């Protein structure tokens, strides 16, 4: 998880807040990578009130997202 953590920290360092509607969109090529990236964003941004994260992936009905 070191590479993902470094990536997430670099993104959080450069983010402009407030975001309307989004500041950053990260595309991952697998569902597992998307969940890993989201969990790292959640971990490192828990003290940043204006940062929210969400993960979207295929294979489920759109109403679940």
Describe it for me?
The chain has 65 residues and is mainly α. It has one domain (2-64). Helix content is 42%, strand content 0%. It contains 2 helices and no strands. It has helices spanning 2-14, 31-44. α1 crosses α2. The radius of gyration is 12 Å and the shape is globular. The N and C termini lie far apart (26 Å).
What is the H/E order? Answer: HH
Show unreliable segments. Answer: none
Number of domains: 1
Helix/strand/pairing category:
mainly alpha
Strand residue percentage: under 5%
- Total count of helical runs of at least 4 residues: 2
Alpha-carbon distance between the termini?
Answer: 26 Å
Secondary structure: number of strands: 0
Question: Roughly how much helix do the residues carry, as a percent range?
Answer: 40-55%
Radius of gyration: 12 Å
The main pleated sheet reads as: none
Overall body shape: globular
Mean pLDDT: 89
Reconstruct the topology from this structure:
Blueprint: H1 2-14, H2 31-44
Helix pairs in contact: 1-2
Short note summarizing the structure:
The protein has helices spanning 2-14, 31-44. With 65 residues, it is mostly helical.
Overview features:
mainly alpha; single chain; 65 residues; 42% helix
């Amino acid at each position: 998880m070191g590479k993902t953590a470094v990536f997430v920290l670099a993104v959080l360092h450069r983010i402009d807040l407030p975001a309307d509607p989004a500041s950053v969109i990260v595309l991952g090529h697998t569902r597992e990578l998307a969940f890993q990236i989201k969990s790292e964003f959640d971990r490192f941004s828990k003290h940043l009130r204006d940062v929210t994260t969400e993960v979207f992936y295929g294979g489920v009905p759109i109403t679940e997202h």
